[in-house]
Structure formats: structure tokens, C-alpha cells
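Shift notes (night). Ran Bifunctional ligase/repressor BirA while the centrifuge was going.
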Amino acid sequence: MNIKQEILKAFHANPGRFISGEELSQTCGCSRTAVWKHIEELRQEGYEVEAVRKAGYRLLAAPDRLSAEAVIAGLDTKRIGQHVLAYDTVVSTQLLAHEAAAKGMPEGTLVIAEQQTGGKGRLGRAWHSPKGTGIWMSMIVRPVIPIPKTPQMTLLTAVAVAKTMQQETGVDVKIKWPNDIFIGGKKVCGVLTELNAEADRVNYLVIGIGINANTAAADFPEELRDIATSLAIESGTTVDRVRFIQQFCRIFEAEYDHYLRHGFDRIKTEWEACSYTIGRWVTVKTIHSELEGRAVGLDEEGVLIIEDAAGARHKVYSADVNYGANE
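Came back to this:
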């Protein structure tokens, strides 16, 4: 943790209170002059810091900007979110997270950006990522699980995102199998999991999460306005993006640790309880075939089960799911 992160952590731990330069220098392990220098840097980045002689410093306001210092400062997780790479504009946080993972960045590292120019979803589809409105991030995890179980991590992440949305905004969200979050029939978030593995073990996963947090209706391209929404539109309030990321990290870490210790059962139950898909009549399109039927649940591995009109049940591992009129 660098000096700016230590200073912000101290401010978050003492909201509204003046902290003396001496106390901050001891906390950060640096001189009072270095403290002053880093506070000036924070001011240049948009933080409003009040300084009063003989009283010290206190934080009055933080910018609506995603920075590594802000995310880490108020975070109490063990590893998820404890390392953050923050950027202004990137092609894709997924690409940068793969590079960071290959270089050995630890599990839980987040790559976040204010804007993506080449954001992507499943099957290479483009993901609209306007500047300063959303949460565009990728996370590195290194689970010790068999390769066939890695799709469960997408379902786990979707559950963690849905829980965070509900807690932070109060909106009713649903998960469309396997990786989309919907509010009122419109998409608000997508999850993209990419695997790097050898023949018999997982090296790492990069999990991309794109959330329309404070996107206004006018910010969406015309072709998306009828099918996409944002948390701000649905809740009527502006989302504190830093706080949202911190809460997601806490929830994800708790779900992830439970999953590694106890398996998939709890995630399966939580996912089904929040499902947009279960019970609906769907058309499932894979590379090789098309199937119609009712989605009846997940199996113990997280595979979608479809029951066709004749009552036969089919396992769907990867596909596009569309919803029909017969539901």
C-alpha cells in the first residue's frame, strides 16, 4: 500500500475528524513534508481536503472517479480487491488483466477503467462502455478446482453482482443464464469469464464485469435503449461506484471462500432463487443445434436443464438463450 492509499485509509477510518500531520506521518511511515506532498497530489486528483493549523487534515469530499487508492482505502477483504490497477481509457480491462495475470499479479487483483474503447462480451460481442458512468472491471482469480468446474465461477460472480446491486440500490434484479443481470427485462450487467489453463490445472481465470451504473438513457446508442438500462435509471439515485466495487469485493470473497470449502450447492440455490431463466420457455442456440423447451433448473454442476415439449430433458453447457411466447 502506497502513501496516498494509507492517507485515504486513515481518512475513511476517521470520517469527519481532523488527523494531525504527525499522526499521518507515523501511520504512513514518512515525514510530515511527504504527507503534505501526497495530500497536494490528492487535491490535484479532485479530493477536497481541509487543512487547519494545529488541527490537521480532514477529507471533505472525494471525486467521482475510480482510483486504486479509493478502492483499496476502505476495503477490509483479505485478497479480493487488495491490488488494483486503475486506468482512464483502455481498449479492454480483460486484455490488461490477462497481461497482469501472466506476470504473476496475485489472486483478487482488479483492473478497472473509466472507459473502454473495445469492451467485449460473450462470443466477441461489443460492450458499450462510456466514460465515467459505469463499472468496467476485470478480476484475476486462481481457484484450485478441476477445469470442467470453471463455468461455475461465472454463476458465482453473477450471484455476487446481483447481491451487491440489491444491497446498494434496493432494485429487484434477475440473472439470465449464465452471465447477464436484468432489471425489469432490460440488461444492466454482463459477466465474461476467460480461462487460462494447462492440461490438468487452472492457471487463472479473468472475470470481466461490465455494469451500467450511472448511465443515462441518452448515453445508450439508439439500438440499445429498448434493451439496456442502468442502476441509476432503475433506482432513481446515483451509484457510488467506489463503494459498490468495495461491497462487491466483500460479497464475492465470502461466496468464493464458501464455494472453495463447501462446493457449489449454495451458489446453485442462490442463483436459482434469482433466476430470470428458470421456469420460462426458451430457445437455446448452440453452434451445432437449436432446442426449444422450458428451463427447469441447474444440475449439481451448474449446467442448465431444458425440458422439451415431449418431456425429454437436455443439458445445455454453453448457448445463447432467447425467450419465447409460450412461457
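The mean pLDDT is 90. The chain has three domains: 3-61, 68-273, 281-323.
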